UniProtKB/TrEMBL annotation:
GO terms for biological process: unsaturated fatty acid biosynthetic process. One of its GO terms (molecular function) is stearoyl-CoA 9-desaturase activity. Its main location: membrane. It is found in: Membrane. Keywords: Fatty acid biosynthesis, Fatty acid metabolism, Iron, Lipid biosynthesis, Lipid metabolism, Membrane, Metal-binding, Oxidoreductase, Transmembrane, Transmembrane helix. This is Stearoyl-CoA desaturase 5.
Length: 324
């Protein structure tokens, strides 16, 4: 494990998952918002239908087999790891290193998450950190809870997001063959990982109906994972304490931490974005950190970066709000 005693230029600010031109319905790619609101009605309709489907899925829960409930939750965990351990901590922040088998697994899990391919996710996330709470922030929390939660998907990207994004060095992402492969076959991988496998496994292995399997393991699981992801952008920017830096918006939010398997220690993360654990407290309430540590034990991951205790305490005293 690598102890870090220095900061990260341009990394202070907010965090966001699934930022950018979301491909779950599309936002017209890299088109700019040049004055008007530029509503993307395709996304609005898709999201409305998806959430209606998720509400309907709740009716099916009592009639589904217990193994289907367990499978749906397992798919949720895999989905979350594809974002937290994959697109976020590995590819966006390079907070640890992963060998090829682990990178392949995380890329597949990221396709199950259906929140943009790794390249777009990581690129826009870096823009988000560098230009937090400005027009270059894909889901600028200064525009309100709804916008930072889901509204940013309903409008074209602000031109600043695109222009600032083009100036960042993302050569490390393109140098990874796993990232390039996932990007090339992204639509196919999403169809297989996000919808076909979650639906077919319960049907084939324990005789669950395709209807129940599709709505519970695909639609309900996907909708819940999206909203828990979005809460990092919205709730974790508005509700909670700021023990590390009271001058930035991100906060420590235990509810988000629990739902997003360790990503709710948001004030810490934006103060020390290089830390692989995104938290001062290691494994506590942080399943993603447990997963990365386990992968290190298996020899599939290494070079975990961690802020030193001295660095954390000094920052608390200098810029924290005095809370625990």
């Amino acid at each position: 494990m690598i102890r870090v005693d220095g900061g990260c230029d341009g990394c202070r600010g907010a965090s966001g998952w699934g930022d950018g031109a979301w491909r779950g319905g599309g936002t017209g790619g890299e088109q700019r918002r040049e004055g008007g609101v530029g509503i993307v009605w395709r996304n609005v309709v898709f999201m409305a239908l998806l959430h209606l489907g998720a509400v309907y899925s709740l009716v099916l829960v009592p009639g589904a087999q217990p193994l289907t409930w367990i499978w749906s939750y397992a798919c949720f965990i895999i989905t979350a790891l594809g974002v937290t351990a994959g697109a976020h901590r590995l590819w966006s922040h390079r907070s640890y290193k992963a060998k090829l088998p682990l990178r392949v697994f995380l890329a597949a899990a990221n396709s199950m998450a259906f929140q943009n391919d790794i390249f777009e996710w990581a690129r826009d996330h870096r823009v988000h950190h560098k230009y937090s709470e400005t027009d270059a922030d894909p889901h600028n929390a200064m525009r309100g809870f709804f916008f930072s939660h889901v509204g940013w998907l309903f409008v074209r990207k602000h031109r600043d997001v695109i222009e600032k994004g083009k100036k960042l060095d993302v050569s490390d992402l393109l140098a990874d063959p796993v990232v390039r492969l996932q990007r090339r076959y992204y639509k196919t991988s999403v169809l297989v990982m996000c919808f076909l496998i979650p639906t077919l496994v319960p049907w084939y292995f324990w005789g669950e109906s395709l209807w129940n399997a599709y709505f519970l393991a695909s639609i309900l699981r996907y909708t819940i994972s999206l909203n828990l992801t979005w809460l990092v952008n919205s709730a974790a920017h508005m509700y909670g304490n700021r023990p590390y830096d009271k001058n930035i918006s991100p906060r420590e939010n235990r509810f988000v931490t629990f739902g997003a398997i360790g990503e709710g220690f948001h004030n810490f993360h934006h103060t020390f974005p290089f830390d692989y654990s995104t938290s001062e407290f290691g494994l506590r309430l942080n399943p993603t950190t447990c997963f990365i540590d386990l992968m290190c034990w298996f020899g599939l991951a290494s070079n975990r970066k961690k802020a030193s205790v001295e660095m954390i305490q000094a920052r608390k005293q200098r810029t924290g709000d005095g809370s625990a």
